[in-house]
Amino acid sequence: MSTCARSHVVVTGASSGIGRATALRLTAAGAHVYAGVRRLADAPAAPSGPGLITPLLLDVTDPGQIGAAAATVAGHIGDAGLDGLVNNAGIGVFGPLEIIPIAEFRRQLEVNVTGQLAVTQALLPQLRLARGRIVLIGSIGTRFTPPFTGPVSASKSTIATMADALRQELAPWGIRVILVEPASVHTEAVGKLARDAGQLLLEAGPGARELYEGAFRRMLRTGLSREEHGSPPDDVAQVVAHALAARSPRARYLAGKDARPMAALGAVLPVPVADALRRKITRQPAPGSLARSR
What we know:
The protein is of the alpha/beta class. Helices cover 51% and strands 12% of the residues. The protein is built from 9 helices and 7 strands. It has helices at 17-28, 63-77, 102-130, 150-170, 189-204, 206-228, 233-245, 259-268, 271-281, and strands spanning 8-11, 32-37, 52-57, 84-87, 133-137, 176-182, 252-255. The protein has a 7-stranded parallel sheet, with helices on both faces. Helix 2 packs parallel to helix 3 (102-130) and helix 3 runs parallel beside helix 4 (150-170).
């Protein structure tokens, strides 16, 4: 049996961005956070305060690391159980679906979906002991999907569906499942997105570049500008912390700049109007404008 009086929370993808901010916020509030990282050197250091951070080597696509991480957590918490799991680890693959390498699309789903489920399965025995909570990090892009975000939005749409199913399946044990949907959050991933997009076009070949380069780069400029001026990751971390602690948490929370207007637009606009608005925002060609005349 654990003698630690702190609450215990696992946060995946804690080396940067939303995951790191969440680990630090929860630690500052007094929690013992197990910070899942792919390299131990990237783990956040606990700030001065009542909480504690234990780094976990946790690649969510590695069954051996998942099992070892679950054993480490179980060895410390004992019969007290795990109070929370924040499934944040993920990658973002962007680009025209016609030219995305299938291996990259599979990798997107393996990390963002299958990996999250594998971690959840491994930790559910500990979560059940404490009637803990699961927070999954989705995206507002599933409600208002711009062009060329198909791979990452597909993975986040699956996360949203998985959250709905888990919420119902785990309710008999008092385990709450909450989806947090961020929008326009400025993280270190902004620069990587630009580099990856350039590499995709470079490897796609001249035919594909001719089809998509102009439209894709215009969308990227718009998207990157929004992300660069987006909310700090701690804004999302604050929502996650609330979801873990609230007496009666909602099933879904929006977080970050632009989340509410994008959700509202996605809910009320007819599809043709929504398509026209997204086309205008991302400066895309008009329907039929690139079709050959017969």
